[in-house]
Amino acid sequence: MMRNSCTDKARRRPAGGRAFLFAAAAAALGLLSAGSCGRRGPDRAASAPDGVTIAYHIEGKGYPALIFVHGWSCDRTYWRDQVGVFARTHTVVAVDLAGHGESGTGRKDWSIPAFGADVAAVVKEEGLRKVILIGHSMGGEVCLEAARALPGRVLGIIGVDTFQDFTEVMTAGQIDEFVSPFKADFRAATDFFVRAMFPWGVDPNLVERVVRAMSSAKPDIAIAVFEGLFTYHPVRTLRDVRIPIRVINSDKYPTNVEGNRRIAASFGVRIMTGRGHFPHLEEPGEFNRLLGLTIAELVPGR
Length: 302
Description:
Radius of gyration: 17 Å
Number of strands: 8
Order of helices and strands: HEEEHEHEHEHHHHHEHEHH
Shape: globular
Number of helices: 12
CATH superfamily: Alpha/Beta hydrolase fold, catalytic domain
Structural class: alpha/beta
CATH architecture: 3-Layer(aba) Sandwich
Largest sheet: 8 strands, mixed
Number of domains: 1
């Protein structure tokens, strides 16, 4: 999930990781709600360990399989500019996490490990032996948990504008301060922070679509997912998940490369300059080029 802060305090030091989440007025979560991207091809479903139905789309054929994981209040269709391109050479799967898109909503545990189990259920349903997990924003953390649930199957994780700083942790007070505006007026709070996630010059139609979509998310689920994300500590999972980790991040928010490498030595980064939190939507051509290079790094023998 994208971390951002509009407070003066946050501006006085480099922001990264969970520091972006702490903002009294708003913070950039960096995720889209369902509804603005068209679906293509047949869709399927798997069952999560708690019985929730997990919808997903699959197309293409090739090694390794690429599993695309959206972020908070987004859905699988926001990978529309990637699925068709990479399905030419790979099996491509785009997942709706529980409570998002066309997946079920009957869940009580809106935690990152529960979402990771959603992804693992889809991989197992399709019998995919070797995969690369690709996660935008909160989807990065979800991929970590999915990798832990899929030992021996994951060649690597590629985060998209995420993992700015593995070490930052929010206190209970910071979580409450962040969530409170969304509890009070979800639509207004969402409208405010989502606009801040885009750089100057981005297609205004894209910005408005994102604002409308995020503002229409279900507040009860969205806030519960917030709390599950903010209490999640990726460092603990990284001790168990010993696989290569790469990110394609924008330069809107700094990435603590050296700090992250002290925790995950394989951490590597590619930066898209002049982009915001949605580089795969803002500039899909360049993003796809960088994603292709990153995938090739993770495939043995290439």
